[in-house]
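quick one, two chains, predict together pls
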Amino acid sequence: MNDAQEHREEDAAVGEDSGTRFYGLNDEIVQEIQEAIEREDAALIYERLADWHSADMADLIEQLKPKLRLPFLQIMGERVDPDVYSDLDENVREHLVDDMEPAEIAAFLNELELDDAVDVLESFEEDEQREVLKEIPADERVVLQEGLSYGEDSAGRLMQRNLIAVPEYWDIGQTIDYMRDTDDLPDEFYEIFVVDPRHHPIGTLSLNRAMRSKRQVLVRDIMDTEQKLIPVDMDQEEVAYLFQQYRLASAAVVNEDGALIGVITVDDIVDVISEEAEEDILRLGGVSEDDLFGSVMSTTRARFLWLFVNLLTAIAASVAIGLFDATMEAIIALAVLMPIVASMGGNAGTQTLTVAVRALATKELTAGNMLRILSKETMVAFLNGSIFAVLIGIVAWLWFSSLNIGLIIALAMIVNIIVAAVAGMIVPVTLDRMKIDPAIASSVFVTTVTDIVGFVAFLGLATIVLL
Amino acid sequence: MNDAQEHREEDAAVGEDSGTRFYGLNDEIVQEIQEAIEREDAALIYERLADWHSADMADLIEQLKPKLRLPFLQIMGERVDPDVYSDLDENVREHLVDDMEPAEIAAFLNELELDDAVDVLESFEEDEQREVLKEIPADERVVLQEGLSYGEDSAGRLMQRNLIAVPEYWDIGQTIDYMRDTDDLPDEFYEIFVVDPRHHPIGTLSLNRAMRSKRQVLVRDIMDTEQKLIPVDMDQEEVAYLFQQYRLASAAVVNEDGALIGVITVDDIVDVISEEAEEDILRLGGVSEDDLFGSVMSTTRARFLWLFVNLLTAIAASVAIGLFDATMEAIIALAVLMPIVASMGGNAGTQTLTVAVRALATKELTAGNMLRILSKETMVAFLNGSIFAVLIGIVAWLWFSSLNIGLIIALAMIVNIIVAAVAGMIVPVTLDRMKIDPAIASSVFVTTVTDIVGFVAFLGLATIVLL
């Protein structure tokens, strides 16, 4: 009894944390729940997790040791909000759902909003998908199948089909009465859509505008006719761009004929923006997808390709070095110093390419200003290159008591940093024009260039001057 | 006249682009406007830019050659929507505002929403700020100064002060009448706040719920009492986490006493999420802030520090290599091959640290599961390390016809890739616990470790075995 009381006090402390975290999990709770699962103390678990939000519950499941996840769900039983499954990391979800019957899966898909249900369904293999779909009532199955038919990452996947559309000749009173009489409305929405007889959107009416108008005011007189329409096959990255650029709260999705078929709201976009940024971060780091909760084998496979490409480029750099083995044999100081030039070039190149990749993603870098920004980057490289050339020149001179070596490394440094800036800008822009994601491949190209130029410039100059 | 018609057709083509871009700028328009500015063809500019959204206008200004930006604004005059200034890149804005009088600046600040006005004001030096504030009417100045008083990146900066708060004993009819009679409402809002007599928030009422209820229904009977309150000094990153985690559309901001003082809506959060992700991307790439439109000097300065740190670590790696100069002199193949081991370690380490930095940002990686994920990363490194050890071992053996060299590089490779995984996980986690942003410093630590371990393992083993 004292125990329970203590828990309750801790719980309060979690809600109003001492500083950095106000909400969400902490390690003590995870630890406590794990112990409770192990000794099958359902009462404690129920008490501690009462009223938890589905997103926190999903986080908790991710944090549990994998072997405790299914026992946890069995203990929780009906208490698990189906939303938990759409909030879960995909790797963890797949692992859990593997142990469920198609009928169980169908039952909880039923509880999810359409976009979440399609997400869950899509993570299955095709035959699994069919099994599950068989268990779903026909009318909902049709909706799900239509959802699946839109391309991954398309506007069709993001949209909700539930929306309010009214004709322009209605007045506010009719609109409100219609809303009061309709049961199947979305949980949250911000706008009423105004459509013509062919169901083409012709304007929008924000709820606050509608609420502040008298019942007899006509919709057409207060609707906002400026609207951004989203084609159902638009890529989600482009959709996110529109929402950000024009600060939209929601936007109508139209089919090929221009008819209103759905609505995307800004809260769906929040996830897209995170996903797209995450994708760029991971790709720049040579990781193809979020594999934190992936298995050892799948993670190994996913990272292999990038490392293999890097092995080839590293061997190419070594071949370049091998051309100068006689020079290095004569002056071993060159072998000692040569990684510095390559490393500085690699870092300078990475700085430029990071800015370029980001600016391409935000559409700030375009064909129009590319040359101007390239010339700026070259100037920056010249300035920083000169400073570092002097610094490393002096270090090398003093270290090996050879002014010549100092001059050679200084010259190689400035050349390589300028080459790095040019490659760091041109490589991503070129990839982008070739419709290849610059985040995924720029880095390997640029560092290959800076490695090879770094080694060849340094060793080549040394061969000419010193031998 | 034919000319104007042609332009109009082009314009239509921009609106419904052939594929990738549906909205926004394209290079042809930028080029055309630049030429029009140069020949002072105001009529063409007015025609082409009629009804442009402020965000597109800001993009256009960023794309113009710097020397054409002020002439452009002079031609546009009153036609420039003040929102353009808050949409502009900070570097470009500073450059433009330098040429304006404080009174002019004050005039357009007046037109902006509070959070945007504070942003613009904050980008000025302190004395400039004072000059501008002097020109602003006293009542608005107080509001701006209060905005400035909240920490940069705090909830206080993000919030809007305009909101609707009603007592719980009102009915829907009273609420609607109050909204109809109040002029100073925000442009967009999604919720009505319910407060107690001390103005503490006790619930929320979504507009759609309110609209669908009869006039005589009491607010207290339909309000949602589950709400996430945001302390005014909460960091914007934490605020964004709350919005994403709990899919909030808006949330109440409270002061130290718990009284309602503002509201943050999800569209403000969209920008925060982009900003925070951009910060991580740039920092991982060794760039401290978005400098695409920065001057040569400020960009050079900003990038210098990172390159300088890298110079020191590169010299440290060279010192490590220098310990083995006799070994390399005896067997020059070692100098040729050594960058491969370091490079593979660097890449494997970057993969792991990228996943770790991202998982720390999304709160998926915690003290609770750190050991589990570390052991997974080590397994992955062991597997990939073994494969690459065999590959490079065979290449080196055949290249230099020495089985010993093949064995040595294979062993060094596996050691370095495992070290890379461990460092790639432990370094960001440790920095995070020390309250240092792991995105900013992880990469330099990890690559220093993999460089030095790579060189020392390879050359050290060679010294033991071969000499």
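Chain A touches chain B through 129 residues (CB under 8 Å).
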